[in-house]
Design a protein that fits this description.
elongated; mainly alpha; about 90% helix
């Protein structure tokens, strides 16, 4: 089974980096990606 704690850490890290770049480009991209990540 996947290490949930490690996976969540990676996802939070990824989301944080994504938000920094996406909010500069377009806020909706970040929102869509956050929704997609929550569906996984």
């Amino acid at each position: 089974m996947l290490n949930i704690k490690g996976f969540r850490n990676i996802m939070l890290n990824f989301k944080y980096r994504l938000s920094l770049s996406a909010l500069r480009i377009h806020p909706y991209i970040y929102i869509i990606n956050a929704i997609k990540a929550n569906e996984m």
